Amino acid sequence: MYRYDEFDASFVNQRTEQFKDQVRRRLAGELSEDEFKPLRLMNGLYLQLHAYMLRVAIPYGTLNGRQMRKLAHIARTYDQNYGHFTTRQNIQFNWPKLEDTPKILEELAEVEMHAIQTSGNCIRNVTADHFAGAAADEIADPRPYAEILRQWSSLHPEFSFLPRKFKIAITGAPNDRAAVQVHDIGLQLARNEEGEIGFVVFVGGGLGRTPMIGRKVRDFLPEEDLLAYSEAILRVYNRYGRRDNKYKARIKILVHETGLDELKADIEAEFEKIRFGVLRLPDEEVRRIEAYFAPPPLEVGNPTSAAVEARKATDAAFAQFVAHNLNPHRVPGYTSVTLSMKPIGGIPGDASDKQMDVIADLAEKYGHDEIRISHEQNVILPHVKLDDLPALFDHLVAAEIAEGNAGLITDIIACPGMDYCALATARSIPVAQRISERFGAAERQAEIGELKIKISGCINACGHHHVGHIGILGLEKKGEEFYQVTLGGSANENASIGEIVGRGFSSEEVVDAIEKLVDTYLGLRTGKEETFLEAYRRVGEDPFKEALYGAA
Amino acid sequence: MKVITANRLLNGDVVWLAENGSWVERIALAKVYDGKEAVAAALAEGLEAEKNQKVVGVYEMDVTVEDGVIVPVRLREKIRATGPTTHPELGKQAQAVSA
């Protein structure tokens, strides 16, 4: 994986020193909160309901054992023995003290990590497919491009005060696991007829209070133009994006209000001015970065494993895990394993310091020292030998991260909600926990099949509810928590925004309502192979509406 | 009825304004203000403390007093006064009840 060079190391160290001084000046009264707030946010430090919160970047969701162990150490030393993996492949610590944060950033810098641009109106951490570099369906590893984008966007002077935050996601496979169409820029790797690598480019996707699917602006952007074209998009946005109203400041609103054709013309015009300038990507530089992401040496093996088959025959939990938590690897004999951060009745995305240590150990022992965080708040070991699965599974069971529920109804995305977040209007996590308990039986989950439930505790949609097959949005109504349900959303290559099914539900009612939706689906599906989303797209909302509210 | 609340600058702890301009970590010890003028004066006192680097994010919040116990009106403030409902072992709900 990518290793810092001298420039990167001194850059991050300088930034840590700078923040240390800013904290000192704040505590000494030389900086007011109004002056300090934008500075702390640019270093990932928020103030939430109970305490400060530090969001640490995990670039494109990739880290190694040493880095994971450092996160465990920070949880143990400066926090309350846990961290929370987020929908942007980052990790949040919920209880750090302001006075400790410079020390935490120093410790992170020791393992080539930081919290730069995890907040603020700048280009945020670039996210990528969590199976990058391993998936059988991949055209190429998207992470070298994500790293190039990271280097270009880090402290980019022109883009440090954008109208609003800016999120880029990239996938290397036709099956989009990085939700690229709901990002400000979405990139999908593609090959042209000559076999050259390039990108399908989407602009203006996003969730929040005005959810929109990104619009395609390029069918094929050549590799060498990646930075110049991105810069052109950002320039047009920086110049024309609205600054009068923060709720209308994202690029999706600009796309919507300007119209795709005019905006595209603006982007292309800007691009023509700069495409042959300094941002043109030299081939040798792309190959140099790519070398950092060279796959580990993997021996081609048997596509099936006798050890796995034998264990499956005698261990139902293992069989369930193998059925749901493995993703096909491009090298026969290997697989990518999802470690479920969604124990039944547990908190989606939370990991204890001990679990993080175990994950680090297991990555080193069984996974060529590679770890990924998914935007679905799980942890992935991308390169595991099939024959090692039984032994790995035993360790996962001991660490309570062995639930065989990846992609199933209990694999719920939930934002922190009102249990932590200052913006929230309702709690998310307890609803996720109750749904997980209701549907937690292994046979029941497996019978229901693929079903993505996503829960947000406010309209800002950190829990991606708009693109949940079932989405739940927590609001406040007359002082009570109140949950609106949407159906039919999806964040993959056939992305769609869910539609509100009808009036919302109280906290007491909402789990029963979800159960009615699930039962309705089970009753009308053509067979087990028709997923909830497919069934919904076939029959529409009427049967679901009727189940919830009775005949019209 | 209102109380004045904020977070402590240094460690982020939730605090409420009490007698003598002190900031307390339990809502039970907060001073309750009634009437526009009293609330405005208390808020001004709070904002002064923000200028002096004691606290950050000062605002007023609604409470009721039931049998002498101060109860926040909004769920958000109830959670701030106790801790995450998902982690009963963390936050104020987990601290000693003697204060």
TrEMBL record, chain A:
Keywords: 4Fe-4S, Heme, Iron, Iron-sulfur, Metal-binding, Oxidoreductase. Pfam families: NIR_SIR, NIR_SIR_ferr. Signal peptide: none annotated. One of its GO terms (molecular function) is 4 iron, 4 sulfur cluster binding. InterPro entries: NIR_SIR_4Fe-4S (IPR051329), NiRdtase/SiRdtase_haem-b_fer (IPR005117), Nit/Sulf_reduc_fer-like_dom_sf (IPR036136), NO2/SO3_Rdtase_4Fe4S_dom (IPR006067), NO2/SO3_Rdtase_4Fe4S_sf (IPR045854). SUPFAM superfamilies: Nitrite and sulphite reductase 4Fe-4S domain-like, Nitrite/Sulfite reductase N-terminal domain-like. Residues 119-273, 410-547 form the Nitrite/sulphite reductase 4Fe-4S domain. Residues 52-111, 348-398 form the Nitrite/Sulfite reductase ferredoxin-like domain. This is Sulfite reductase [NADPH] hemoprotein beta-component. It comes from Roseibium aggregatum (strain ATCC 25650 / DSM 13394 / JCM 20685 / NBRC 16684 / NCIMB 2208 / IAM 12614 / B1) (Stappia aggregata).
TrEMBL record, chain B:
InterPro entries: DUF2849. It holds the Pfam family DUF2849. This is DUF2849 domain-containing protein. It comes from Roseibium aggregatum (strain ATCC 25650 / DSM 13394 / JCM 20685 / NBRC 16684 / NCIMB 2208 / IAM 12614 / B1).
